[in-house]
Structure formats: C-alpha cells, structure tokens
Amino acid sequence: RDVSTYAKLCYLSYGTFLFAGDFERTVYPMDFFNWVSFHFYESPLHKAQLDAYYRLYPAHQRPQCVLSGYARFDGLERYREAESPLWPRPKGASQRVIWTPRWTTGQNNAHFFDYKDRFLQLCDENRDMDLVFRPHPLTFKESIARAQMTPQEVEDYKNCYRTRANAVLDLRPEYLDTFHSSDARVTDISSIMPEYLASGKPIVYCHKED
User: Helix, strand, or coil here: 120?
Assistant: First the structure.
C-alpha cells in the first residue's frame, strides 16, 4: 500500500495459473490487488478467468488487466542448445534424467520419500543413465522441521550423490541449461513445469490424490 502512493504497482505471474476456487483466492488476494494498477496476464484464457474473478469486487479495487504473454519465457530461446556443467558425461553418451520432487510433504502431493532411495537404486542398476536430482531449496529444511530426517541423515543422503559417478545433486540457482540439455524430467507439481514443457522434452508427472 505504501509503495502504491508514489508508484504504480505492476504484477507479473510467478507461475502460470489455471485453478479456481479457494486456491485462486490465495494466489490473487484482493488485499494485495487493491493497490495494484496493472495485472499482466499470459493468455486470452487467463483474461476470461481474471474477468470473472475481478467482477466479484468493486470496480475501483480492480487492476487493469493487460495481455503480455508469459514473461518467464522471454529468454528461453537462448537455451535451446545449452549444455549444463552438471552432466557427468557428454551429450549422447547417456540417458539424462532430472528429478524435481515437491519440497513439502504436508500437502500430500510430494514423492520425495517415496522415491529418494529408488532413484539411487536406478542409478546403480542402469549405468547408461545420468541423474540430476534438483531439490527445492526448502526440501531438506522441511524434512528436518517435520522430523522426517535428521541433519545427519540429510548429509548422508547428499553424500549418496557425491559418491556416485552417474548421480548429481544440483544446488545451483541456474536450471534452464540443465533442462534443455536433459532427455526427460520426473516431477511433482511444480511452478517451473511450464519452462520444461517449452524445451520439448517429456515429463513423467507423479500425481497424488491431493
């Protein structure tokens, strides 16, 4: 609110959004959009969704909606031929798989504990596969906070990747070069899924009821 008194606030979507109901109200809270001048949206489909949503509120509380495309896609083209330094072997020498599980188990839509040992087993059994495990930055903190792993168990698990020739733990901020130089991705629900779809590579999506 304070910033809106001297500057126009503009909102760009954090992740492409196609939900309705309570989740929509969580992502588009009117106590925030009260003070926003422009809401830049991704597609005509989103315009219809936003028009229906904002009609629930007085006209003076609605931001002006502007079709802009998906800003996070603007720089993707330069990654088409990118190579990531993470892969243990040159392109074509192995099948390259990325695993990106959801960071929290509290919503019953994550598979980290279902698959964390199985992926290591797959690496041991399939020497022609290179795996990059990219945890969310909060994954291990959340596991410790929920008493699902101890700090020592977290370090032991990280060491499982450090001691394997065909498994890599990815803690870098950059991820698009790894996406575009991979062969496939295994993932839970994720805000960076649209960027992987743009690479043209297949996704194995791990669904849970919630």
Answer: helix
**pLDDT tens readout for residues 141-196:** 999 999 999 999 999 999 999 999 999 999 999 999 999 999 999 999 888 888 89
DSSP code of 112? H
- Round to whole Å and give the CA distance between 202 and 184: 5
Other beta carbons less than 10 A from residue 60's beta carbon: 6
- Burial class of 133 by CB neighbour count within 10 A (0 to 12, 13 to 18, 19+): buried
State the residue for tokens 């990747």: 161
Q: Is the pTM of this model over 0.85?
A: no
Q: How far is CA 50 from the centre of its chain?
A: 23
Q: How many CA atoms lie within 13 A of 124 on its CB side?
A: 8
Eight-class DSSP state of 149:
S
**What is the distance, to the nearest Å, from the Cα of residue 188 to the centroid of all Cα atoms in its chain?**
9
Question: Which whole number is the average pLDDT over 100-123?
Answer: 92
| Contact present, 104 and 138 (Cβ < 8 Å) | yes
Nearby residues of 38 by Cβ (< 8 Å), 6 or more positions away: 8, 9, 10, 11, 63, 64, 65, 66
Burial category of 189 from C-beta neighbours within 10 Å (exposed 0-12, middle 13-18, buried 19 and up): middle
Higher per-residue confidence, 61 vs 7: 7
